[in-house]
Design a protein that fits this description.
The complex is a heterotrimer of chains A (about 325), B (about 250) and C (about 950). With about 325 residues, chain A is mainly α. Chain A is built from ten helices and one strand. Chain B has about 250 residues and is of the alpha+beta class. Classes of the chains: A mainly alpha (about 325), B alpha+beta (about 250), C alpha/beta (about 950). The complex binds ligand MGD (2 copies), iron/sulfur cluster (SF4) (5 copies) and molybdenum atom (MO).
Amino acid sequence: MHPAYSVLLFTTLSGAGYGLMILLCLFGVAGVISSDPVMGLLGFGFSFGLVTFGLMSSAFHLGHPERAWRAVTQWRSSWLSREGVLALITYVPAGLFAIGWITMGDTSGVWALFGVAAAVGAVLTVYCTGMIYQSLRTISQWHNDWVTPIYLLLAIATGALWFNALVLAFGEGRSLFTWLCVSVLSLGMVAKFGYWHSIDTGKALRTPGHATGLARLGTVRQWETAHTQANYVQREMGFQIARKHAHKLRVYALLAGFIVPLFLCLSVVAMEEGRAAAILAFLAAAVSMLGMLIERWLFFAEAQHVVTLYYGAESA
Amino acid sequence: MTSLPESSSGKKLGLVIDLDTCVGCQACAVSCKEWNTTGHTAPLTDQNPYGAEATGVWLNRIHSYEVSPGTHGSGGMTVNFPRSCLHCEEPECVTVCPTGASYKRAEDGIVLVNPDTCIGCKLCSWACPYGAREYDEDDGVMKKCTLCVDRIYNENLEPEDRQPACVRACPTGARHFGDLGDPESAVSTLVRERGGFDLMPGLGYRPVNKYLPPRERRVGADTELAALKPADTGPGAAGDRVFRWLDRALSR
Amino acid sequence: MAEGPAPGEPKVETSPNIADEVKCTTCYMCACRCGIKVYLKDGTVRYIEGNRDHPVNKGVLCAKGSAGIMQHYSPARLRNPLMRVGPRGSGEFKEVSWDEALSTAAGWLGEVRARDPRKLAFFTGRDQSQALTGWWASQFGTPNYAAHGGFCSVNMAAAGLYTIGGSFWEFGEPDWSHTRYFLMFGVAEDHDSNPIKIGLGKLKQRGAKFVSVNPVRSGYSSIADEWIGIRPGTDGLLVFALIHELLHAGKIDLDYLVRYTNAPWLVIDDPGAADDGLFARDAEGHPLAWDRESDGPVDAALPDITPALSGAYTLPDGRKAVPSFNHLVERYSDSRYAPEAVADRVGIPAATIKRIAAELAQAAFEEEVVLDIPWTDWAGRRHDKMIGRPVAMHAMRGISAHSNGFHTCRAIHVLQLLLGSIDCPGGFRYKPPFPKPIPPGLKPAGHEDQIGPDKPLGGPPLGFPTGPEDLLIDPDGTPRRIDKAYSWEAPIAAHGMMHMVITNAAKRDPYAIDVLFMFMANMSWNSSMSVSSVLKSLTEMDPETGEYAIPKIIYSDAFFSEMIPYADLILPDTTYLERWDCISLLDRPICEADGPGDSIRQPVVDPDRNVRPFQDVLIDLGARIGLPGFTAEDGGAKYPGGYADYLVNHERAPGIGPLAGWRGAAGDSHGRGAPNPKQLEKYIENGCFWHMKMPESQRYFRHANKEYLDWAVSFGLIGHADQIVMQIYSEALQKFRLAARGHGERQPPERDRARVETYFDPLPIWYAPLEDAGIETEAFPLHAVTQRPMAMYHSWGSQNAWLRQIHGANRLYMNRETATRLGIGEDDWVWVTSAHGKVRGQVRLMDGVNANTVWTWNAIGKRAGAWNLAPDSPEATKGFLLNHLISELLPEREGGYRYSNSDPVTGQAAWYDLRVKVERVGPADAQRSAPALAALDRLPGLEPPPAISRFGEQFLDKPKGMGGRRGRT
Ligand SMILES: Nc1nc2c(c(=O)[nH]1)N[C@H]1C(S)=C(S)[C@@H](COP(=O)(O)OP(=O)(O)OC[C@H]3O[C@@H](n4cnc5c(=O)[nH]c(N)nc54)[C@H](O)[C@@H]3O)O[C@H]1N2
Ligand SMILES: Nc1nc2c(c(=O)[nH]1)N[C@H]1C(S)=C(S)[C@@H](COP(=O)(O)OP(=O)(O)OC[C@H]3O[C@@H](n4cnc5c(=O)[nH]c(N)nc54)[C@H](O)[C@@H]3O)O[C@H]1N2
Ligand code: SF4
Ligand code: SF4
Ligand code: SF4
Ligand code: SF4
Ligand code: SF4
Ligand SMILES: [Mo]
């Protein structure tokens, strides 16, 4: 699949935004962190920023952004629509919770309800994002049980890294938070390994013989292309990365997305709380975002749509 | 209207494509382009039509494949393979659509895109296993085979012409149009008699369009029995024996 | 009727009115002549569909036909007459008025005509108005006229006309409704493309067996029951082996041979004598047969005789004679034509050849078709049934584009005759005006006494020689035509040799010309056999005069083709939707086997440019220079109304004009009749064609069907109603051979003697393609051929916004195993080298191609800048033209002479004799096609093409929104 930058940005940024939102809400409600209005402002500002920027970038990628509102109408059947609906709905409790926090420093009582609702909304939104991909039977690398959990884990992991940097910056860091980062990142990494293992060993399901229904006559191979100039389907669905590049990129994604941030987190744990720790935590978050972009890019680039079977692919 | 229609009329309009007869001439592809660029989802834009990267929206594409040695005779065959929307009964291209622009008509099962409400998110094209949806960059909306909905019911056309442009044009008669929901229709009969099949049935989209397989190639076996026997096996050189058998009275 | 949308579904307009007006005309996206209906909205062409009532396409339409809109609105259309201002090839032109263009042309032409009309060479390409252009040439007085047939498939036309009185091309067709076995040789698309596709569809439905003999398994061959992947140029051997098998098995329709062919005719057997190999004739000149009943010679034309097919007989005058069939049997029953003997050479196992022979015999003799249709034979005998051998054959350029194509095609016709399957139910059927006498009675004009200043030619420029006396040569043997057609080099060049004109003219061999006038042929590109040498010829200077060796070139094209920069005066034509045209019985009509027909084109839209239909221009020029046929008695124009006027009022012979339908003052007679002023209206009313179905009793055996023959005479198709006896043994060929053996007044010069002796065998022969003899075949081990893509017409299609997306570049197709052996893989770039040049292209592998053959789609490669395409278009950067590898001349022979690279009998260009080697490009080589000729600059007057095409948008009711997107929210 062709990795469209708007979609990569959307899923990584909004994922991190929602992750951050979830943690702010949950820890805020639980009172584990203080309801410092400045921290709230910064935290929610950043979270909303990521989410909104992500949503906007995906909307501008539409052929008709001015009609984007229509996308929320089909929640009964469409995961994309559900994602849109939930994203919009989540703004409300999240916004209210943030207002309570920032203006009144209050995260309890009715505000807490909003906080919990926002966290649930955010989880569901990311879940829908994952399901948009996982539900597609046309792409075996996406139609895979690891996909949605990974979307969730990575959203929470990146969110946690930002959360950790934030609380450290406000002197509210705790090793609990860093350990949380470490564990979610580790889980994410394990899940990613699981995913890669699954797509690498899951044998290619179909051949041109299946696609054309001619398999019983022999081995089917593309001979003449339908047209000499590439069309939309080939540009959108035909993109595929070579194995050796994919391998390299997996290493980069692992390093940037997981290993470096893990290492940085562990250094934070080892360190006294303070400026340096905050900086390291911030670095961990930033580096992991880069890693996530690579991971997301690969998620597309390694995905092979069955339609490629009509266009010369030997299996998909 | 993204959810699939609940009460369906039982009518399933679609195409039956005969891979035994298709010569890959592209007539159906071009007539489709021609009709539809002024039709329901007009225009089917072409980018750089006279430049290096000419690329446009087409609703029907004709591929060619080689099938190498199988069970069908002399070492393989070439199969031409037209591909357009199959108007699936369980089309996820419809259910994934966030806007309802993609819909399946209750009355005849035709899967359409409403060009007035499509936001161009492309998700439906990801959901289609058959590559039947093409995005129009210029128009910002998704386009696909309309089963010539603006021909098949068109009262401004003569009754014989109320069939899809591609079917009307196909020089070899490899394309057939009709109601596959009616077991007695000509297309259903054809599918039954010729062993019409679905593309990738395992995906569960339940295509309405059917493909008829290439018929068994009638390549005889090269055996002694298959060769002709000399007419005259009498004595003498072979050449002389030829002269012997043809030496008979013939009237002009 | 739509029941209306379900609740919540959008309402769809299912009954849009798509046209203000629908006009019928005839397609010209290729030469197949299909009937079309053009839907017009607000004066714009909106939709083109096949005309269901039309006899050719019966409603279907090919890819090109549907893309007609894009051709019609092509940005490469010429807009104004142009006069060259820079050197040839520079593309520097100025736009001039029609007045200036026409007076210049008339000046050049008039001057030549007054001095020596031969100095005009007038050659028209893929033209459908040869009835006009040929007549114009003869009114002008030049023999130097032909259309594209000489490089197309003249050897097959000639082989058919000298054997069965009809031919393949689109002049006949398999009996699609009855045949049980269809054998097709070397056809990818053909001129009759839609009818063939319709027919194949029918065959498939009926379950008849379809065998395709073709080095490549694509297109039609892909749906064949059996694909015979033959080695190019060897079909003759395959056919001989089939004949060999049938002969030994006695599976020959002797009754058919005796009734309908010259198999029983006695051939004089007197080696060394002047009449050796000619038919024995009686005092009146009638050929003789040996009657077994009376044991003596009889007039072979008599009915009810019992002629012998074998044996040797002594004529009353003491000469020995044998039935011609005896020669045939002797030759092909010989073991050198046994399947085992030819298998390796043709690349097909002997057992397969034997089986095919058995299958042919089975279909012909065990599955005969009987139609309950009474008919009367030439001798007046009634037959209550029509009995047919349901084996049909068809062949085209896979046979004709080889230098042995004439004989191979004759071999196929002979095979058909042996099976009794010409014009019988289930066999090959003639389309009127065929069959014609064998060969047709027309002789080419151009002898000395037929040419003179300001004088029409003493006959038609093209015809059918039956002996050396008909050759157009000077006493010393020098060719009288610029293309050397009808000379010893190509005695039966019945369509001329367009491919030689430029080369010969530049070499002034046999003489210099002053004006080259061409129409509708991209001679500097895909219809030249060798691009580089033709470009050299077009730009060659005569050092003595300081002028171009070809001093003046007038060219009419409708588009900015590769040929444009090489002409001096450009006469821009309209598109096919903007003019009158005529697909006439006098040329290549739209007849079906079931009956004759012809058709017209009418202007369905007005030109929006300063262009004129070429036919109007030609008629205008004819009047300006005072050609007799084009000038009225008062000296004014005879056809002031242009081509439309001519179509209605011109009479070739009394009562016979370009159009056969609705003649006579009342418009009620067909075929013959006085001009009818309302004729064109009648055509338009009828969908722009006229067609009639002959009575059932006249639909088969027309070479010997009395009712048909009588009707054909009355209709003006043939001169007399005698039986047309098919010529297995060709006496005309033997006459040339006798001359080569030293008999008669006109004998070939020494250089040509052996050549004529060899290739004018009265029975079909096979020889290796001529190029093989001149080069080291081991150095060039592979055969290279082209195929026509179904969705592209020669070079015109690439300007078409739709078609070029399908065929924007071409690959070199190679057999997978062969390529692997040569270390070549999928998508590799390779050099393809012949003895004459090299091209670079990209490879695609396939299984379905003969192991010794590579091929590519024809004429996809384009010169950069031509056709108003961006210079970096794939046509120029990835596409390549195989013609860079071919040569129009064969390698030098002793004495330094270079023969044309053509069939030695008919002058047919031998495109597919090409031999090549293929090598992977080196690492330093560019991955783009080569040779890359300098890009052409955009022609004056042409606009840069649009960056986006939204064709169709103009018909939407809703206005366009901003930013290039529809504001439909
Ligand atoms: N390698 C290879 N070469 C081949 C062949 C092959 O098989 N292989 N085939 C050969 C054969 S059989 C043929 S017939 C030739 C064909 O070759 P050409 O005769 O050159 O045919 P086209 O490319 O069709 O070009 C004809 C010209 O007519 C112009 N034209 C199109 N429409 C009109 C019109 O309405 N009016 C006017 N005035 N001009 C128009 C086009 O712009 C073009 O310049 O190619 C020959 N060359
Ligand atoms: N779409 C389209 N239609 C056209 C044209 C076009 O350009 N495009 N051009 C028109 C013209 S001008 C012509 S002349 C006709 C020609 O129509 P075709 O005769 O169909 O011409 P080609 O495409 O050259 O096909 C020749 C076939 O012969 C095969 N072949 C080559 N060498 C041999 C051989 O030695 N033996 C055998 N058995 N087969 C061989 C090739 O593989 C190829 O399939 O088409 C006409 N129709
Ligand atoms: S073929 Fe594709 S576009 Fe058509 S209905 Fe099925 S899934 Fe949808
Ligand atoms: S591109 Fe249009 S039709 Fe397709 S899913 Fe998106 S909104 Fe629906
Ligand atoms: S039914 Fe109509 S829209 Fe669909 S492929 Fe055929 S011509 Fe195109
Ligand atoms: S028009 Fe008919 S024969 Fe031609 S590609 Fe389409 S289905 Fe095949
Ligand atoms: S075969 Fe195609 S291009 Fe040729 S005349 Fe017929 S419709 Fe037109
Ligand atoms: Mo041709």
